[in-house]
Structures are given as C-alpha cells and as structure tokens.
Amino acid sequence: MPFLYIMAKKIFSGIPNNILQTILSEIDARFGKTFAWKKRLGKGGSGQVYLSESADGQRIAVKIYREKNRCEQERADLDALRKKCSVKIPEVYFASAVDGRDFLAMEYIDGVNARTNIRIYLAPKEKRKAFAESVAKGVNSILAVRESKFGDPKGELYDKWTDYYFRRAEKILDGMKAYSGKFAYRRIYRLMLFLWEKREVIFAEEPPYSAFIHGDLCPMNMLADPKKGELKAFIDPFDAFYADPEYELFQLFCQSGDFLGLYEEYKRLFPVTADVDQKCYFYAIFAEAEYFLSTGRMLWGVVLPLLAKKRRFIGKL
Ligand SMILES: Nc1ncnc2c1ncn2[C@@H]1O[C@H](COP(=O)(O)OP(=O)(O)O)[C@@H](O)[C@H]1O
Ligand SMILES: [Mg+2]
Q: 108: CA distance to ligand 1 center in Å?
C-alpha cells in the first residue's frame, strides 16, 4: 500500500487526490462507465495530461489546467483547427471544471511528442525527412486556408497585418523595457529594439492574406508514433489568431525543429516570401518575450539557441 501511495503521488504530482477522484467521477458519469487513471502522459506550460482507461479498454487523454479559463479557449481552438488541418487534431469529448480545476477530456493519441521522443532523434535520416515532410504538409494545410482579417477573434480585427501586429509587438517591447536593466534580459531587449527599429525593412512586404494560427505549433505539440516515428497529431493550440501565414513558421526552427529540419523542409516544399527568415526571427523573439511577460517564465532552452541563430536569420539587416 505505501508503495502504491508513493507511486500515485509521483504519477499525479501536483494535483490533489480528491480532485483527481472528482474528475474521474465526472468522466464516469459522462461516458456511463468506469474509468481509472493510468499514467501521466506529459506536462507543459498550461497543465498536465493524464491517460485514463475504462474497464472495457477505452482510452482518453485528460488535460488538467494550471490556470482557470484556458479550457474553453483550447476547446474552441481545437475545434476550429480540426476543420482546416490535414493532420489529426484530437477530438474533444467535453470540457468541465471541478473544485475550481478546469479539465478537458479528449481523444488519446498513442504518440510521443517530437521534442522528447528520443527515437525520432535516433531514427535514420530518411525517417526524419519523412517526418519533416508530414509536418510541413500539415502546417501548410492550416496556413493555406484564407481568412478574411487579421487579429484576435475575440477582439478587434484589422484589414492590414502590420496594423494589428505592430501594436501587439510594441506592447511587448514596452513590457520588456522594465527588465532591460537586468543582466540576463538586457541582450534580449537590445535585440528586440534593433528588430523594432528595422521593422519597416523586415515587414516591407505585407502578407497577401490572413491565416488561422495554432499559436504554439512547436515540436512539443507534435505527436509521433513511438515506434515508427510517423507524425500522428498536432495538439495544444494556444490563443489561436488570424495572422501572416508565415507567422508560425518560427516554431519549426525552435526546440528540436532545426535538428529535425522542419523549417527548411517547409521552405523546400512551399513558396515563401523573400523576407521570411527575418520576419520569422522577429516573430520568434517577440513571442518568447510575450510568453515571459504573461507567465513570468523565460524559456531559456528556447531563447538561447534563438540568440545563437541571429546571424543566420537576420545577418543581412
Ligand atoms: N491527446 C493526447 N494524447 C496523448 N498525449 C497527449 C495528448 N495531449 C497531450 N499529450 C502529452 O502531454 C504533453 C503536454 O500536453 P499539452 O497539451 O501540450 O500541455 P501544455 O499546454 O501544458 O503544453 C504533450 O507534449 C504530450 O506529450
Ligand atoms: Mg504543449
């Protein structure tokens, strides 16, 4: 019994047992059968995801959120993406809250994310290439759907991309100013200032149309078959919005994206604008700063490699 207790604590760390029990009771009631917790599938910035299985073998993924009010947004973003994307997007069964904890019950994908899946790194080159090709095609399927305006679907929409984005970027720059005196952030702030001053050059060409943006399409949110390494699903959209169709491509060179050749493969397969590298670098740096300002967490594991890519992406400026 103590062993089971320790294991349970380890597996479900962070979420009190009574809450897990209440969530399970609600799942049982919704599906009309008995489920049990099996293991934790993963953890990220907004929550923890667990595998739950019914006595008759139905497996579902349950995401339990750290913060309130993210759940409905994620459900809406998943539902919108599913209509556009050629890659599987998990089906949402229901979203709910117990004892102030939001959770989402969704389709379980038997896959491991492309950042932590060691097999993907060890796979032969042609398998990695095939993976990169499926990612590029999946990403493009979302970006090829034309939307009518730019901006946040919950807020004001704009006819011109930079009318929306420059406002957003300027707010981020202002927010980072408060940290510019601190050694760790000074370099990032200076780089942001440099990019901001060059914005007219970087964004000389306005995007021809707007596209629906997943909001966090990084390798961590791409699930691959644990054995074959094939792409199985895209998960975890975050505050999806309407933007330059090239906005999200920066995710493809962050985390393990470069090693997997995701960005280069996308550029090989699909037409991009002449300034795609410098634009994407701008987007990447500002997106990381925005994440830091809203959560208090600077993802150094992403930011430091980005700083090292400066010459490659904006060397011409
Ligand atoms: N539907 C799912 N099926 C299988 N594994 C999942 C599923 N959803 C999430 N995971 C796993 O849990 C991890 C964290 O989930 P995610 O939704 O990305 O959380 P966060 O929003 O906190 O980043 C993922 O990287 C993945 O490994
Ligand atoms: Mg995630």
A: 10
**Is the model's pLDDT at 133 over the cut of 90?**
yes
Give yes or no for a contact between 140 and 269, defined as CB atoms under 8 angstroms apart: yes
Which residues lie below 8 Å from residue 204, measured CB to CB, with a gap of 6+?
Answer: 275
With a 6 Å cutoff on the Cβ, whether 63 touches ligand 1 is: yes
Counting every residue, how long is the chain? Answer: 317
- Tokens for 170, please give them: 């300027």
Q: Is 108 in the pocket of ligand 1 (CB under 6 A)?
A: yes
Is residue 221 within 6 Å of ligand 1 at its C-beta?
Answer: yes
pLDDT tens string 221-262: 999 998 888 999 999 999 999 999 999 999 999 999 999 999
CA-proximal residue: ligand 1, atom 26 (nearest): 42
All domains of the chain in start order, with CATH: 2-107 (3.30.200.20), 112-314 (3.90.1200.10)
Spatial neighbors of 247 by CB under 8 A, at least 6 apart, are: 211, 213, 283
Element (H, E) at 47: strand 47-54
pLDDT surpasses 50 at 1: no
- pLDDT at residue 8 in the model: 52
Separation between Cα atoms, residue 229 and residue 4, nearest integer Å:
33
Ligand 1 proximity of 78 Cβ (cutoff 6 Å): no
pLDDT tens, position by position, 171-183: 999 999 999 999 9
Nearest alpha carbon, ligand 1 atom 24: 42
C-alpha 274 to ligand 2 mean position (Å): 30
Token pair 């300034």 is at which residue? 275
> Which are the contacts of 303, defined by CB distance < 8 A and separation ≥ 6?
188, 288
Find where tokens 């920066």 sit.
Answer: 250
Q: Which amino acid is at 59?
A: R
For the cut 90, the answer to whether the pLDDT of residue 14 exceeds it is: no
